[in-house]
Write a structure and sequence with these properties.
2 copies of one chain form a homodimer. Chain A has 5 helices and 14 strands. With about 250 residues, chain A is of the alpha+beta class. The interface between A and B is large, with 47 and 47 residues.
Chain lengths: ~250, ~250
């Protein structure tokens, strides 16, 4: 399993991804799922993936090697995409290329070949954007109404995002709430685990402000987990017990 | 969709179920999913269902009309089961009967025919028990290690149960935490909705201590939802922002 979330607020972008992959519960490994492509000051792009690891890795390799555009003859990569929208389209095209070859073979073998990506970033002169790209290569874009997107095991960590994240949320509060969402997911699904990779990009900076890996035992994250647990316990203790009586 | 949870603590049993059914988002109805079978002081049994409504209703009707035991000739119902374990077995048998007829036809039509039940209660002289019964009629029993079971849309509401419920939790705190779990689910999945039916059974009473329906606008539940939201906001605000700096 995997859990990745992207949060796009007024001040910038947060992306968080776990690193656990598993082929069955008896075959667990650590793979980076959050990848950064940047020419600082010019462009920053981050790609997080969930689903079949062989397919998502092939999609990334395709995007780095490039795909020849039959009309222009240009070799199109992520790094030479002129806009974030065109870059998202290229990711979609790379997904369809990989699905057409490996995806079909996996389907014939009844192996799950779903993949999904979060793709966020900014190219100088253009807006900071965040996309979620599906297994068929189509995609949606994050808006101010719901300023976050999730891939992978998204349900456990969604309630806190729904309640706490708004477009005006401070950038580092966004990171903090994203980490709480990650913690809720890790607590309920063993397939999501440390280390956690995270990225913070301030709007119009076109470079990472923070790129960090939280390793097991890291003190701040451990403290966040304990404080959140204690706060939830205190929160429900503060609510009065139900006054209900059976109506006859 | 559906969300039902059962909580079995030292002092007794709580069962909570929503009432929303939907065949697509454009066809939403209200159906009671939590059903009570009781001879007060002698036996109390409660059955909550999720999944295909036509199948779960047929299972309940089968359990009320009874199934003839080919060996003894006895017509076996829920109400004449000698123990909770034997009652759970009868539910399993009723599920298999229904799956063998309607389930196969639904499968042929590619219609989902999964169902699941929570079954809790006590027969005088026996213990208070809680079971989760699967689509194949097999079942598991709730234990003191993890004193709750869930069916339906269980993920959104699981983190708060994992954190807050223990076997020694007060009975009405259990009800309160179950309602918070229901609230988290309702917030994130429109397929789960009010009214909510709930049941509280004190251990060894063999009758309902509380059987209640929370209707839309009911003041305590509305207050609980608001307090919980406010407490979550306060909880994450109290946690310091991440101190991370990029490591070069």
């Amino acid at each position: 399993m995997t859990y990745c979330c992207g949060i796009l607020v007024r001040d910038g972008l947060v992306m968080i991804a776990d690193t656990r992959t598993n082929a069955g519960v008896d075959n667990i490994s650590t793979f980076r799922k959050l990848h950064l492509y940047t020419t600082p000051g010019e462009r920053i792009m981050a790609l997080a993936s969930s689903g079949n690891l062989s397919l998502s890795q092939s999609v990334r390799s395709t995007l780095i090697e490039g795909m020849e555009n039959p009309e222009t003859g240009e070799v199109e990569t992520l790094m030479n995409a002129p806009t974030m929208f065109k870059a998202a389209q290229r990711i979609g095209r790379a997904i369809r290329n990989v699905q057409n070859v490996e995806g079909k073979a996996l389907e014939a073998a009844s192996v799950d070949h779903e993949i999904a990506f979060l793709f966020g970033g900014q190219i100088k002169g253009g807006p900071l954007r965040l996309f979620m790209i599906y297994s068929a290569g189509n995609f949606i874009e994050c808006t101010t109404d719901t300023p976050y997107l999730q891939i992978g095991e998204h349900k456990y960590g969604k309630p806190v995002l729904d309640r706490a994240i708004g477009f005006d949320t401070d950038l580092y509060d966004g990171l903090k709430i994203g980490l709480i969402s990650m913690d809720s997911t890790m607590r309920s699904n063993l397939g999501v685990g440390l280390p956690i990779d995270l990225l913070v990009v301030r709007r119009d900076a076109c470079e990472p402000e923070l790129s960090y890996r939280i390793e097991p035992g890291e003190p701040y994250f451990q403290d966040l987990r304990e404080r959140w647990s204690a706060a939830l316990r205190a929160a429900h203790m503060d609510i009065p017990r139900p006054p209900y009586r059976t109506e006859i």
